[in-house]
Write a structure and sequence with these properties.
Length: 422
């Protein structure tokens, strides 16, 4: 038995939690560079704000209804996410963190699952101030669907247990829910299924799995079996370590000069190296890419350059140096660059780091000092905010940073962001 716990309007709820002025009115959270809508409060949904809508086309609608917006505050969301996971861990021995605001819980063996779900809701609300809904069922696909139903239908009071329901009631719900709400049925597949006359969840559940497998994929066949109550996927308790880590960003404007690009590449290399160390990996290769805006008229330039490192590493200065060499190897003056990024590749566990013949001479002492330096770097940046300690090449040039016009404070991760009462 599985439960899917999902925070309602997660980003918007985090913003409303710390700023009472944002409650009870349309609120949208925007993507990087304040481009598109990535989260909406219930009030913003109610006035018809669409997900992923470009902000310049939606602003009028939101503001004429007394609403407002915030830039994405990922430091805040990531920290609140950690807290949600910590609270949820007190409710089940096995838990899969599925996304920043969703967890699957092993719900086997609980006598009254709905009551257990309500206790989760109450505890997350009273300890963290965030609203969650709980979907319960015998497969992950059904639990996800149950969560959607719990959110959309007030009679469930935020907890829907499909497995505890009489069959007829469950059938009626599935017949009244659009097939596009099923986990893994994206907009394209949705259209195909509708053409085949499969418009509801019940119709998909009752379709022939073999036919769907031949026509689409084995994945969809599995989805159908899961809708029938046959589990095809278990909890993923330890997510596999990532095979590559990336840090990249679109500039808020355009960048022409190499000095600014160097600052950006160095910053991305540092950030990627930090992610690398967080998962105890080392990288065997570095790729850097730069690109102009292909949606705009004018001269275009897109390139990526990779190097294989002489020996695997997770050392920030070392990785940044190689990333800068890549940049210098492909930079052409005269273009308006829009985006740059760093990818660390060929990852392996930190313990198996192989030294090259050339570097074998480097003493153990040097290596230990490097490790200590990186550990301090991570500690400082975790405690006082990203970019507090950085390489000198990044200093001085900040105009490539993201446009985040209305960024809320780091309420929970930075002393200077602490909420004040007046
Ligand atoms: Mg959510």
């Amino acid at each position: 038995m599985f439960a899917l716990v999902d925070v309602n309007n997660f980003y918007a709820s985090c913003e409303q939690l710390f700023d009472p002025r944002l409650r009870g009115r349309p609120l949208v959270v925007l993507s990087n560079n304040d481009g598109c809508v990535v989260a909406r409060s219930a009030e913003a949904r109610a006035i018809g704000v669409k997900m992923a809508a470009p902000w310049h086309k939606t602003r009028q609608l939101v503001e004429s209804n007394g609403g407002t917006y915030r830039s994405s505050n990922y430091a805040l969301y990531a920290d609140m996410s950690d807290r949600v996971i910590e609270v949820l861990s007190t409710f089940s021995p096995n838990i899969e963190v599925y996304s920043i605001d969703e967890c699957f819980l092993d719900f086997d063996g609980f006598a009254d699952r709905t009551a257990h779900g309500q206790r989760i809701r109450q505890r997350v609300q009273s300890w963290l101030g965030l609203p969650v809904c709980v979907g319960i069922a015998q497969t992950k696909t059904l639990a996800k669907l149950a969560n959607h139903i719990a959110k959309k239908r007030p009679q469930f009071q935020g907890v829907c247990d499909l497995a505890a329901m009489p069959q007829a009631a469950c059938d009626a719900l599935l017949a009244d829910t659009e097939v596009g709400e099923v986990w893994g049925v994206g907009p394209k597949l949705n259209i195909h299924l509708r053409h085949m006359g499969i418009a509801t969840v019940a119709a998909l559940r009752d379709a022939d799995p073999q036919t769907l497998r031949e026509r689409f994929s084995v994945v969809l066949e599995r989805t159908v079996r899961e809708l029938q109550g046959i589990p095809c996927a278990d909890l993923e308790l330890t997510p596999p370590a990532k095979q590559e880590v990336t840090s990249s960003r679109t500039f808020s404007g355009y960048v022409r000069d190499i000095e600014t690009l160097r600052a950006a590449v160095s910053s991305h290399a540092s950030r990627a190296a930090e992610k690398l160390r967080a998962q105890d990996s080392v990288a065997g290769g570095v790729t850097v890419f730069i690109q102009t805006n292909r949606f705009m008229k004018g001269p275009q330039y897109q390139r990526a350059l990779s190097v294989r490192l002489p020996s695997t590493s997770s050392d920030t200065p070392h990785l940044a140096r190689w990333a800068l060499r890549c940049l210098e190897g492909m930079y052409v003056c005269g273009y308006d660059y829009r985006k740059v990024g760093v990818i660390l590749r060929d990852l392996g566990p930190a313990t198996t780091g192989q030294l090259s013949l050339l570097e074998r001479a480097a003493s153990k002492q040097t290596e230990d000092r490097r490790a200590a330096l990186n550990a301090v770097l991570d500690k400082v940046n975790q405690k006082w905010g990203r970019g507090t300690a950085k390489l000198s090449v990044e200093a001085g040039s900040t105009h490539w940073h993201m446009a985040r016009e209305r960024l809320s404070p780091e309420y929970t991760t930075n002393w200077s962001g602490l909420a004040t009462a007046s």
